[in-house]
Each structure stands twice: as structure tokens, then as C-alpha cells.
Amino acid sequence: MKKVVFTFFLFALTVSINAQSIFGKWENRDEETGKVDSVIEVYEKDGKAYAKIVEITDQNRQDAVCDKCKGKNKDKKILGMNILTGLEKDGDEWSGGKILDPKNGKKYKCYIELVEADKLKIRGYIGFSLLGRTAYWFRKK
């Protein structure tokens, strides 16, 4: 009986910890339609947060490339592309990195913050965080 209780407790603790993490798969929704247009996986590498596009829902965009990107991402497939790089934990948020918008090919400073267990706030900006745009990603179920 003790093993069953311990196993249940361990499982509940694991689920609780994962629900409070920025890491995992997130849905990006179109701002106008509210429909999911891509799935982004946020992962940790060397103590920093990164994210890549792991799914594009529009079947006609599966082979889309970032034609407006510069440098190493120029004309690379958007599917599989890293769009968040080098964010470090700073209190309740992760900051100090960059985010790439494949629609316009531009990189912005950014920070991300878990505002609810299943809602991630992403703020991309130029210069100061007051000059930017906020988006929300929703945990993929």
C-alpha cells in the first residue's frame, strides 16, 4: 500500500512541476482567427531556453522558407527552425535572448513569462520592452 501511495505522490508531483514549467510544446494562434497556426517546442540547453517550430498546421506551408531572413536562416525551412535563442532565467521570467519572426525575418530582444500554467507570455521588442509586441502561446494538450 505504501508503494502505491508513494507512486501516486511522485506522479502528482511530476505533473505539478511540469505544469509550472515553460518547457514543452506550445500552440501559437493566429491573432485574427484564433486558430492554431504552429506548434513551438520550448526546450533547455546548457541552462538556457530555446524554442523551435515543430509543427505547421497549414498543409500548404509545410515547405515554407524564411525568404525575408538574413544570415544563416536565409531561405531555410521554417519548420524545424529555432526562433527563440539564449534566454536565461531571471526570477519569474526568462530574458536576455532573441526571438525571430519568420513572417518578416526580423530578430527582436525578448522575454517570456509563464502567466498561467498553460499560458506563456512572449514579449518581443526593439531597444526597450515598451516598444514591442506581446503574444501568448498556449500549452499543447
List the helices and strands and how they pair.
Layout: H1 2-19, E1 24-29, E2 36-45, E3 48-56, E4 82-90, E5 93-101, E6 106-116, E7 119-125, E8 132-139
Antiparallel strand pairs: 1-2, 1-8, 2-3, 3-4, 4-5, 5-6, 6-7, 7-8
Domain DUF2147: 24-139
Protein name: DUF2147 domain-containing protein
Keywords: Signal
| Domains (count) | 1
Largest beta sheet, briefly? 8 strands, antiparallel, barrel
Output the helix-strand order: HEEEEEEEE
What proportion of the residues is helical, as a percent range?
A: 10-25%
Keywords: Signal
Signal peptide: 1-19
Protein name: DUF2147 domain-containing protein
Domain DUF2147: 24-139
Summarize this entry quickly:
With 141 residues, this protein is mainly beta. The chain has one helix and eight strands; from the N terminus they run αββββββββ.
